[in-house]
Amino acid sequence: MKAMEYKELGKTGLFVSKLSFGCGPLGCHYGTYDETDAIEAVRQAIKQGVNYIDTAPWYGQGRSETILGKALKGIPRGAYYIATKIGRYELDYDNMFDFSVEKTRKSLKKSLELLGLDYVDVIQARDIIHDIEFAPSLDIIITQTLPELSKQVAEGKAKYIGLTGYPMSVLKECIEKSNINIACVLSYARLTLIDDTLLEYIPFFKKHNIGLINAAALSMSLLTNNGPPNWHPASDETKEQCANAAQYCKNQNVELSKLAIWHSMQYTNVDTNLIGIQNTKQLQMNLDVLRNSITEKEKTLLQEIQEKYLSTIKNQHWEDKEIQMYQKAMKNNVR
C-alpha cells in the first residue's frame, strides 16, 4: 500500500496531497446526501492524509461551506489547507455572477464566517469566462477583482490567490495580463478520459511556476455508473457514449468512476487531483485507487471502453454551451 504523496503547489510552499477533497457535491448540484456521513468523510480524509480541501459559495449558496465548517471543528488548523472562491453565487441568472470589489470583499467575509476560520489558504476568482455576458470583459477581473483579492491577502484573510475557469485560454490570458501574483490555477474536467486539453497548457503554467490543481476527473459525474445530473452541459452524443461506457462497466461489475480516477491520477505533472466527494464510501474508493491502483482486469476494461466508446466522441468539451445558455436566459429576462 502506498503512503500519501505530497507536492508543492507551485511556489506557495503549501505541500498538497495527491488526492484532494472537492466539496462541490456538498452543495445542491449533485442531489441529496447524508450530512453526518459527509462530515465524517471530511474528517476521515484529513486523518488519511488528504490535506487540501476546496469549496465555494456557489455550492448550495453556502451549504457546502457550512457543512465543511462543521466538519473542521476541533481539527488543528495546521492539518489542512482550505480554498474557496468568489465570482459565482446564485442559481438565478440575474444574480449568478458578480466580480465587483464590494461583492468580492463581502463574499470572503461570509465564507470565513461559515467555515469558522480566520483565513483561507487560497482564494480563487472562479468561472472566469471571456464573454461580455459573464463578466463585462476580462478587464473587471484584472483591474478590480484580483487587486481586491490582493488586499485581502495583505490583510491576512487569505494566503494565496488562484484562478479557476473552464476555458483554458482565458486562464492563460488572465495570467499574462495581470500584474497580481497568481499562485495557482484550478482546471476542471480538462484532464479526463474524454478531454486532455490541459496537457497543452501545462508548459505555460510550469514556466510561470503556477500550481496546478486538476479537478473533476469524473467530468462532473459524466464518467460514473450513475451518470450526470440533468443540468450537465455536455452534448447528447457525449452523454450517450459515456452512458454506453458506464453500462459496459456495470456488466463487468466495475465502477466507471474508479477507472476514470485512476486514469487522471497517472499524470504526474499536476500538483493535486481534486475530486468531488459526498460520502465515506466515495472517499474510500478514491483512497483505494490512490494506494492500490486498479487490477489488470480493470486496466483491460478501461482500454476496451476507450476504444469502443470514448474515443469516438467528437465534442469532448462544452466550452460555449454554458455561455449560450446564459445569454439566452438573460435575453428572456430582458423581455
Automatic annotation (TrEMBL):
<dbReference type="GO" id="GO:0005829">
    <property type="term" value="C:cytosol"/>
</dbReference>
<dbReference type="InterPro" id="IPR044479">
    <property type="entry name" value="LGALDH-like"/>
</dbReference>
<dbReference type="InterPro" id="IPR020471">
    <property type="entry name" value="AKR"/>
</dbReference>
<dbReference type="GO" id="GO:0010349">
    <property type="term" value="F:L-galactose dehydrogenase activity"/>
</dbReference>
<dbReference type="Pfam" id="PF00248">
    <property type="entry name" value="Aldo_ket_red"/>
</dbReference>
<protein>
    <submittedName>
        <fullName>D-arabinose 1-dehydrogenase</fullName>
    </submittedName>
</protein>
<dbReference type="InterPro" id="IPR023210">
    <property type="entry name" value="NADP_OxRdtase_dom"/>
</dbReference>
<dbReference type="InterPro" id="IPR036812">
    <property type="entry name" value="NAD(P)_OxRdtase_dom_sf"/>
</dbReference>
<feature type="domain" description="NADP-dependent oxidoreductase">
    <location>
        <begin position="18"/>
        <end position="306"/>
    </location>
</feature>
